[in-house]
Amino acid sequence: MTLAGVRVLLGVSGGVACYKAVALARGLLKAGAEVQVVMTAGATRFVQPDQFAAITGRPVYADTFTDVHRIVHVEVARQADVAIIAPATTNVIAKFAAGIADDLVSSTFTCLTVPTIVAPAMHTEMWLHPATQAAVDVLRGRGTIITGPGVGALAGGDEGPGRLEDEDVLLDAVHRAVGRPTIAEPHPLSGRRVLVTAGGTRERLDPVRYLSNRSTGKMGYAVAAVAAELGAEVELVSAPTALDAPAGVTLTPVESALDMHAAVTSAAPDADVIVKAAAVSDFRPAQVADQKLKKGTFGAGEGGTVVRLVANPDILAELGTRDDLDAVLVGFAAETEDVEAHGRDKLARKNLDLIAINDVSATDAGFGTDTNRVVILGREGFRHEVALTGKREVARVLLDLAAARLRS
Questions:
Q1: Residues 6 or more apart from 228 whose CB is under 8 A from it?
Q2: What b/e string do you get for 178-212 counting C-beta neighbours within 10 Å, with b at 16 or more?
Q3: Which of 14, 101, 326, 391 qualifies as a FRET site for 127, CA 20 to 30 Å off?
């Protein structure tokens, strides 16, 4: 009875996965919680309120105008210790992010001051839509816990990311949110140290200009965020980005390749898993001016200026040769042609355990997008292809594979 005395508000919005909310309510009750259910009108088309009422022993509210004098949405929000919205449709997620309160569930959400879990469930195209991803980012930024979606079978015979997480995962999220012992088995990365690099390094020319690349850091930040959610102790060594540090992650900001080399080589001996998702500049200017450079400073060519470059250290290759490391080493290969062949070569040359290869010339994957598609290769000949999905989903697959090697 690990949730004994905990008052759980269960919000149910109108998706095919509504039937799973019935099992979730029963699971919460078995764990000792008191469960109050609120539903959208759409949800009542899939599951009758009486079914929840029979299970919970409480009236179910599905209309803002029921018992108007009681102001139900305020009352149930105040009485909750934790809230979970499962399933959460695209529509209700967008409402939550925008502060729209035009039904009972969205009105109740705007009144919540307790830990709140949102469990998305929708078709893959809806989950990957930029508007949905932006709304989810807004909610995460406000402290909302996003659990899922899972990857698997969807309505209509489709398959992909968008599946409501299983009951044990949702129950585990509720336990964590209220600080109670969890009932699910911990992930193999729980308590392990994960070192992640992200972003594109900047190589200074002068106080104003620098050389860099198109990396936004989204993939590395997704890896760090998911690793932390799995219970790992995460250090994120990040070149400059426009992203906020994920919750529960120690951020070490750096600028240049030399800065990143120093930070990574210092932290690496304590890591169990190292994921090098940063786009590290291969070269840096041989000279860095103290003052802003004028045209022709380095010797003018026809219509331009000559800048001499020197090679930066290859951090990933160096890690692959160090005998003092006992970490699973994971790299990324951002390619534009002969993608898999170049990635396989990099896997071997740099002595990696795993490498995630992606075509950054694609418009829906790679730099700056919220989605990615990768081929993951292992040193023992392993190959796993991840179709177009969110970067967090790619991160989860990659971390699960790294954890399997950690155990072996």
A1: 234, 246, 247, 248, 249
A2: bebebeeeebbbeebbbbbbbbbbbbebbeeebbb
A3: 101
Tokens of 403: 């954890």
**Structure tokens given for 181:** 């012992």
Active-site residue set: 213
- Provide the greatest CA pair distance for the chain: 83
346 vs 328: CA distance, rounded Å: 16
Q: What are the structural domains of the chain?
A: 7-177 (3.40.50.1950), 193-288+300-407 (3.40.50.10300)
- Give the model confidence (pLDDT) of 48-102 as tens digits: 999 999 999 999 999 877 666 678 889 899 999 999 999 999 999 999 999 999 9
User: Would you state the structure tokens that stand for residue 215, as one six-digit string?
Assistant: 């990396």
User: What's the token pair of residue 164?
Assistant: 């409501």
Residue 221 to residues 234, 259, 342, 384, Cα–Cα distance (Å): 11, 18, 24, 22
Going by their DSSP bridges, the two strands 371-378 and 383-390 should be labelled as: antiparallel
Residue 317's H or E segment, with its range, is helix 315-321
Residue 238 burial (CB < 10 Å; 0-12/13-18/19+)? buried
Structure confidence by residue, pLDDT tens digits, 106-148: 999 999 999 999 999 998 888 989 899 899 989 998 989 999 8
